[in-house]
Amino acid sequence: MRNLKILLGLLFTLIIICIYFFLVEPKDKIKLTPDMISKVRYLETNSVAEGTIKDYGQDAQNVFQKLISSKTVVSKTTFWKKKLFENSSNFSQRIIEFSLDNKENITFEILTFNVEGHKNESYIRHIGDSTIYHLNAEHTEDILIQFTNR
To answer: For the domain bounded by 31-147, which CATH number is listed?
Structure first.
């Protein structure tokens, strides 16, 4: 009887996880295209000062362009190895939400590592898409500088 309860508990947990990945996670499958850059009105992200940063116009469009320019797909295994086992001195995670002209919102999760002796590197994921991309060091640096001390 006890084994049956444990088995049912595990089965219930597995079902909840499957529901999350198949129903909750892919909430907005928006195809990201370069022509969307001109439609970006502003971006919103968290601040180190416990507030919210909003950048408008060209600043927001530049960040959006850098985020969608990455074409290097990274496996989830590689991403999790990096996230869990990398010896990095500075690890930061940021959610950046873009607002478009047509009132749509596009959200990115960016995970940045500062590995001693190497350049910063980032992994990005468009919320609603499970694909993880590697962002090159130059674009990572540009984005980090834009949000530094704000």
So the answer is: 2.60.40
